[in-house]
Amino acid sequence: MSILVVGSVAYDTVETPFGRAERVLGGSASFFSVAASFFVPVNLVGVVGRDFGDKELAAFRGRGIDLDGLERMDGQTFHWQGKYSYDLNSRETVCTDLNVFEFFKPKIPERYRRSEYVFLGNIDPVLQREVLDQVDRPRLVACDTMNFWIEGKPAELKKTLARVDVLLINDAEARQLSGEWNIVKAARAIRAMGPRTLIVKKGEHGVLMFTEDGSFAAPAYPLEEVFDPTGAGDTFAGGFVGFLAGAASAGRPAASHSEAITDATPEMVPQRFGRAHSHALGNPLRRQTACSVVGRFGRPDRWQARRCRLPTSQGPRWRVTRSRKGTPTDPRTAPGWRDPGTPSCRVAGARPAAARRSNYRMSPLA
After folding, report:
1. Which of 228, 328, 342, 353 has its CA 20 to 30 A from that of 234?
2. What is the 8-class DSSP label of residue 252?
3. Which residue has the higher pLDDT, 81 or 256?
């Protein structure tokens, strides 16, 4: 079981009120592939220039990411520069240098074509369809797009969406694509274009999912320090699709998309600007994003000793452990348990997700 991702591999120059990072590794395919590689092998297809060195390639090596589809062309690698406002919810694009990415024509290697899961990064919708023409009946196709394609190539984008199972976009893009201000009406209109599942990313406010069975909402993981949200959406997409592929590879019953959202969301550990110039997706994902360090994705074999980080002044912190014989244990019977409705637990988003499973118990940390 593997995932094929087609998208950009780039250099980013990012400026926020908290610092500046020059020409660090970025691009939708980069963020997605590293996150998804925690679950299953990833086949990456993209293009870079002659300036793309071993230092950047080292971020992918040793992670189960196949780079045979990463093409190298004469010229410079795609470069994006942006500046964020103080709240990190809005940004200004300073410059976009497409360079070799302007001439990118995805060529899917023969052994990639049998990938059962496909993620189409934010590229021209015509190229996205060309990718689909080269693969052999994937089990699931997920797709990302942006306002540039929604405004510039609406007809081509709708042709692509007719062949997509899952679309991941933010709320502004959902309103622009559908022409509807209300997000529920927007979701209905977009799903009528083809995608069975629409996932609306809302940044620090979490995510909404719409399917034929209804809707689902999940909050974002609360953080005290965030320095750069660049790539957070692609990282989330990697965890989402990676979880679904990993569950299928392990022979588990078909995982629901809502389970993928809740269980595949990474613990987010931001790094500070200037700590190390190798922070670009280095050890592991040393990128300054809200989802920068993908530590534990909530996989069943990693739920033991998982912690819900609550400041001690606001209540106890909790350790989640598997009961010795796997017998059902109600976490509310644990010593010192506080009802999720109390202010201290509400700060932490109630109890950890893993504790809601019946064969786990909770105990307060010292």
Report:
1. 353
2. P
3. 81
* Helix, strand or coil, per DSSP, at residue 310: coil
**HSE-up of residue 346 (Cα within 13 Å, Cβ side):** 3
Q: Helices 183-191 & 171-178, crossing angle to 10 degrees?
A: 60
Q: Using CA atoms, how far apart are residues 65 and 60, in angstroms rounded to an integer? A: 6
For the 3-295 domain, the top CATH level (class) is: alpha beta
For the chain, which residues make up each domain, given as ranges?
A: 3-295, 306-364
Rama region for 274: left / alpha / beta (φ>0; ψ in -120 to 50; rest)? left
pLDDT over 90 (residue 252): no
pLDDT of 228 over the 60 cut: yes
Cβ 170 vs Cβ 201: under 8 Å: yes
pLDDT at 324: 43
How long, in residues, is the chain? 366
Q: Which residue has the tokens 């976490």?
A: 331
Per-residue tokens: 110: 């023969």
- pLDDT tier for residue 223 given thresholds of 50, 70 and 90: confident
Q: Which of 74, 89, 80 is nearest to 122 (CA)?
A: 80
Interhelix angle 232-249/28-36, rounded to 10 degrees, is 40
